């Protein structure tokens, strides 16, 4: 008779279970799973050689220079198409700010009166489906008129309260 006939089926499951279970290693006076070996703290010598780097803050709207808004002059007003899967003609303006930086700003709302040499106010806030557009024009301030006949969300579009 062959040896395989007498072998129970549980032997194979036992060997698989032993492989899956993590091996434990004794290091520095404590037990660590084998996948945690590299997560130990740095030694003092390692920190002397290369100190810890403080996480640097990267602004989402660097052209504003930590200001809430900035004034600028439109150098070009045009439409552009969004990334896939969206399809539209989004209104944007290239704006030269008072700190001499040139940025692309999204013009929100239906219809606008902006043209070249219009003075606009820019706030931060990107448009997800337009690459490179990290700023919004503030409607209802300076040369940018508010959205006409806007009933809801009027404060975002600079629309006055309609007469009832």
Automatic annotation (TrEMBL):
One of its GO terms (molecular function) is rRNA binding. HAMAP family: Ribosomal_uS12_B. It comes from Xanthomonas campestris pv. campestris (strain B100). The gene is rpsL. This is Small ribosomal subunit protein uS12. SUPFAM superfamilies: Nucleic acid-binding proteins. With S4 and S5 plays an important role in translational accuracy. Interacts with and stabilizes bases of the 16S rRNA that are involved in tRNA selection in the A site and with the mRNA backbone. Located at the interface of the 30S and 50S subunits, it traverses the body of the 30S subunit contacting proteins on the other side and probably holding the rRNA structure together. The combined cluster of proteins S8, S12 and S17 appears to hold together the shoulder and platform of the 30S subunit. Signal peptide: none annotated. InterPro entries: NA-bd_OB-fold, Ribosomal_uS12, Ribosomal_uS12_bac. The lineage of its organism: Bacteria, Pseudomonadati, Pseudomonadota, Gammaproteobacteria, Lysobacterales. Keywords: Ribonucleoprotein, Ribosomal protein, RNA-binding, rRNA-binding, tRNA-binding. Part of the 30S ribosomal subunit. Contacts proteins S8 and S17. May interact with IF1 in the 30S initiation complex. Belongs to the universal ribosomal protein uS12 family. One of its GO terms (biological process) is translation. One of its GO terms (cellular component) is small ribosomal subunit. The keyword Ribosomal protein applies. Gene3D superfamilies: Nucleic acid-binding proteins.
């Amino acid at each position: 008779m062959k040896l395989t006939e007498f072998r129970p089926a549980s032997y194979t499951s036992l060997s698989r279970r032993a492989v899956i279970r993590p091996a434990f290693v004794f290091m520095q006076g404590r037990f660590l799973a084998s996948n945690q070996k590299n997560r130990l703290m740095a030694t003092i010598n390692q920190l002397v050689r290369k100190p810890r780097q403080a996480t640097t803050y990267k602004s989402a709207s660097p052209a504003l220079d930590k200001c809430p808004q900035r004034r600028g002059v439109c150098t070009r007003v045009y439409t552009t198409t969004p990334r896939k899967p969206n399809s539209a003609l989004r209104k944007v303006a290239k704006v030269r700010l008072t700190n001499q930086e040139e940025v692309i700003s999204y013009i929100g709302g239906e219809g606008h009166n902006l043209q070249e040499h219009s003075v606009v106010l820019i706030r931060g806030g990107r448009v997800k489906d337009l690459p490179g557009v990290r700023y919004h024009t503030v409607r209802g301030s300076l040369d940018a008129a508010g959205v006409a006949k806007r009933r809801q969300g009027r404060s975002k579009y600079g629309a006055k309260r309609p007469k009832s």
